[in-house]
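*** Query protein ***
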Amino acid sequence: MKKSGIKIGLLGLVLFLQSCGAYNFSGADIGTAESFQVNFFQNYADQTPGSTIVPGLGRDFTLALQDMINNLTSLSLTGSNGDLIYEGEIVEYKVVPMTATADQRTAQNRLTMSVNVRFYNTTKEDADFEKRFSFFYDFDAAASLPSIQAAAHEEIFERLTQDIFNASLGNW
């Protein structure tokens, strides 16, 4: 009696998992896609007034997006001919004062980064889009940008890559 109950339970679990198809626990809908590519995100932030260029920012962001998709899907990363293609550019990277003290000094700054993303799904053309994503990191005005950059990039990249992932593969 116990063995047949276990067998039925296992059979039910296998059927359930097979019925999930191309979905996974991240909520990603990869359809019939098997691979993805993330083209290098050029840093064109200096073309936006007030923005600055940070060496290596394009490389670091490109790797962060690759890692996000790789960690949340079963897709294979490829350098060309991917079923899903991400490309774009960093269009803004600037620090602006946010709050002031009583004596009119800056108390808090905000680092904002924006990326323009083009997404192509070669297996489902109506899923293609071009969209701008932006996020920020607030920090004490007494701190220098280089001193907070690692923490800021980690938080900003996490949010931007999650937003890009959700826009391209989220099935909520």
